[in-house]
Amino acid sequence: MITQAALARRLTTIALAAALAAGLAASGRPALGQGGAIRIGAVFAVTGPASSLGKPEKDTAAMLAAQLAASGGVAGRPVQIITYDSETDPTKAVLLMKKAVTEDGVAAVVGGTTSPESQPMADYAMSAEIPFMSVAASTTLSVPARAWVFQMPQRNDVAAATAMQYLVALRVTTFAFLYRNDDFGQDGLVGFRTYARQRGMTVVDTEPFAATDTDLSAQVARARIKNPQAMVVWSTPPTAAIAAKNIRQLGMPVPILESHGIANRAFIQLAGPAAEGVVFPAGKLLVAGKLPAGDPQKALLERYARDFEAANKYAANTFGGHAYDGITMLLDAFRHVGPDKAGVREYLEHLRGFVGTGGVFAMSPQNHNGLSTKDMVLVVIKNGAWDIWR
């Protein structure tokens, strides 16, 4: 039985330095003792349609593995991060997770780059009773809460609520909704329909598309007929960029609002001039340098971005940040309770005030995401760069 005092001690907020370097080797807390390596499975879409998300996730894991090796691991025990490539295939993702658990002996798993991958992985986590740190955003991954599943990105419903602030500010009353026809896009549609009703807005057209589509001009043309005041696109690159290009190519001068799934340079590179002026909700990582000095995330965000770029020679983005949050949250749990799966699950479920790249997490038994609209900002693309929309 955990006493209130013991639980309170467990829930101390840690910063990056305490989590990785000095804190891992000399935190001042009682060591858990010597032992074999603690293993973390990391299943990311390193290749396939979602590779622009999965590659920075994999590169973040490699960066953290190097930092852990240099710092001596966690409480005197080495930590191995074993990375697997799902190829953006949900079936392969869950099979790799099973391999990680049953053959490679991992204590927890981070991954599921896309929502279609994370859903079966979450189901397996429940049956295998192993902590799973999902890096996908579908609301249904953690609503209702599932005992062994924790979600690192801001959920779709939180992102949709943040995105709607843009439409409200523009006094938009009608919009069309283009979405990737899978768990991620369908979940976004549910959120937007709900918030639109609450604000007296009308969704005049909904247009699904496949993640592998290479042209969305037919969907855009159908939406244009309805004369919407704004176009909302809920996807990730490359289709998110294709949609923006087709909207501009068909001469629609209306605002384009996209999802938090475009929070990486791949969108700007693929969309080209069509990216200019696009607004989307995101965590604060992309605009860390523009945050006020007192923001609780600023120092960690700037440190992560600096370390990532030094290690990988390209800019950090939101998706690598999700992997960072999942891995460092597990490291914090290992420092306190060791690699005991049940102990890790219980620790994470009560973790509050954890400063990550996605926000300041406040987990509870009822909320295994722990983020809200206060952890997001509206970002606008200006001159090929990120800025805070005002």
Number of strands: 14
How are helices and strands ordered from N to C? HHHEHEHEHEEHEHEHEHEHEHHHEEEE
What strand order characterises the main sheet? 2-1-3-4-5
Helix content: 40-55%
Distance between the termini: 49 Å
Name the CATH class of the largest domain. Answer: Alpha Beta
Question: How many distinct folded domains?
Answer: 2
Per the CATH scheme, the topology name of the largest domain is Rossmann fold
Largest sheet: 5 strands, parallel
Overall pLDDT score: 92
Strand content: 15-25%
Q: How does the helix and strand content classify structurally?
A: alpha/beta
The residue ranges in which pLDDT falls below 50 over 5 or more consecutive positions are: 1-33
Assign an overall shape.
globular
CATH-derived architecture of the largest domain: 3-Layer(aba) Sandwich
Report the total helices.
14
Lay out the secondary structure.
Elements: H1 4-10, H2 16-19, H3 22-26, E1 38-44, H4 51-71, E2 79-85, H5 90-102, E3 108-111, H6 115-128, E4 132-134, E5 149-151, H7 156-169, E6 174-180, H8 183-198, E7 202-209, H9 217-225, E8 231-234, H10 239-249, E9 256-258, H11 265-271, E10 279-282, H12 298-312, H13 318-337, H14 341-349, E11 352-355, E12 360-362, E13 377-382, E14 385-388
Parallel strand pairs: 1-2, 1-3, 3-4, 4-5, 6-7, 6-8, 8-9
Antiparallel strand pairs: 10-13, 11-12, 13-14
Helix pairs in contact: 4-13, 5-6, 7-8, 10-11, 13-14
